[in-house]
Amino acid sequence: MSDVSAGAARPTRLSVALTTGLLLLFLVYSLAPTWFLVVASTKDQTDLYSTFGLWFSSNHLLENLKEVWTYHDGLYVRWMANSVVYSTLGAAGSTIISIAAGYGLAKYEFRGRGAVFGIIVGASLLPSTLLAFPLYLVFAEIHLTNTIWAVLIPYFINPFGVYLGKVYAESSVPVELIEAARIDGAGEFRIFRSVSVRLMTTGSITIFMLDFIGIWNNFFIPLFMLNGERTFPVTLGLFSWAKQAQNSHDMNTLVLTGSLVSIVPLAVFMFTLQKYWRGGILLGSLK
To answer: Which terminus of the chain has fewer CB atoms gathered within 10 Å of its CB, N or C?
Structure first.
């Protein structure tokens, strides 16, 4: 009986072929924009409009890179540095708050815990674009617009990160271990700092990674909060170049090459932390 069931559960060649074909199609769809950036970054203005867009012609990559780095006294370098600062500090603050709040929701019984968690889940479903203008009004009222705090403070609060923190706390921190630490005389903060945080390392790195990528790619909050080009992150800076390119096609190679360079730190970041985020995402999905 077990042999028959095992044989019936085997996928057919047609299902395997369809699944493989769909995966390949999704892979091509996902990589096509990056491939276009790679190809376009090797072309000058003439080749960009006179040759096939998805294949190489003459190689001007080094010239384009030099122009990106030196244009307007190295403004692009400043944008990249701003993105690193915003993403690192914002993701670090968000991770700390998310892990602490998630741990509290997972391990402490208090009145209204279910309602609080429901509000957090509901808040995580709100698009960030809907909150950009109300946040601007709040920060304008307290005179913090066009400062680093106007960008960082909204990044610190991440309802989805709190949800993940709760999931990881429930999965990786045994209640018995917390009780044993209490019996030994450890206080709640010490238990969290010395025991729970260490057990939640994989989850913390996963939350940090997701926050870092989300902040790096965020556009609307900097658009509303910042008005000096030297405070722009790279996403908003490239947008300003793209607006100039509408009037001057000479800016198009700058925009395309700058866009390619802007994804390199994210690729390096992902590959560096891949052993952590793979395990973290798997743990979250199993939970």
So the answer is: N
Would you state the pLDDT for residue 9?
64
* pTM of full prediction above 0.90: no
Helix (H) or strand (E) segment spanning residue 244? helix 234-245
Contact 207, 95 (CB under 8 A): yes
Q: Which pLDDT band, with edges at 50, 70 and 90, does 170 fall under?
A: very high
Q: Any residues with CB less than 8 A from the CB of 156 and at least 6 apart, and which?
A: 90, 93, 94, 97
CB atoms under 10 Å from CB of 199, counted, come to 16
Question: Would you say residue 280 has pLDDT above 60?
Answer: no
Query: What is the model's pLDDT at position 278?
Result: 60
What distance in Å separates the CA atoms of residue 145 and residue 138, rounded to the nearest whole number?
Answer: 9
Give me the pLDDT at residue 1, please.
45
CATH code for 63-286?
Answer: 1.10.3720.10
**Cα(277)–Cα(270) distance, integer angstroms:** 8
